[in-house]
Amino acid sequence: MEKVKIFGVEIFNITSDECENILRQFLKSEKLNKIFTPNTEIVMAAKRDEELKNLVNSADLVLCDGIGLIHASKMRNKPIKERVTGFDTSIKLLEIADEKGLNLYFLGGKEGVAKEAKEKVEEKYKNLKVVGYHNGYFNSKIDGKEDTSEEKKIIEEINSKDTDIVFVGFGFPRQEKWIDKMGDDIKAKVIIGNGGVLDILSGRANRAPDIFIKLGLEWFYRLIKDPARIKRQIDLPKFLLAVLRDKNSVE
Prior knowledge:
Blueprint: E1 3-6, E2 9-12, H1 16-26, E3 33-36, H2 40-48, H3 50-57, E4 61-62, H4 67-75, H5 86-100, E5 103-108, H6 113-124, E6 129-134, H7 149-160, E7 165-169, H8 174-182, E8 190-193, H9 197-202, H10 210-214, H11 218-225, H12 230-233, H13 235-245
Parallel strand pairs: 3-4, 3-8, 5-6, 5-7, 7-8
Antiparallel strand pairs: 1-2
Helix pairs in contact: 1-5, 2-3, 4-13
């Protein structure tokens, strides 16, 4: 599979259709397939942290979630075919799960979010089943906590319910670190770190209107809705400047 490296992060250079084909193959496999969805903020963090970069690159599928990555690839004449977002990929997983009658587990968000996401998803998709859910606030091995009994129960529940797909919405980099750490213990076919997708599925948050998405201004919509994001969004112009300055930034 062709990849484009942006500051060492290996983005799969695929279209949405190609992504769907990969997802379908993953769901036929006998192993857990990990999906990460980096945007410019994540790539900048990985640029600063070699361990984090290696962790992201260890996934079985690394998607181009951020419009800034598209711009960077074009600036350096290594164009990525298409932006394939974590949200759209999550929805495609729901559609395939509904088609095939698969089982999902929702993990993440504040108390009540995963439960509400389950209710909304099962109302829309009649043939899939969300076999379990849990909020994202529990003691974990990745935090060095001694009492991780709740975490063990979550994994036991995932494994005991013939789960095919796990959505993990802790936000970056916690969800990626958790998937990396706990992956060997989870018996499923696909696990995806998908940030705030559960909030959107639950109805507690809205995705940007289509016009913002089409214009590549989803980040701007989020900033309007939550001005406190400015500290995070500042990575976008920093990222583009870094690409301009470094001729080897994209390979």
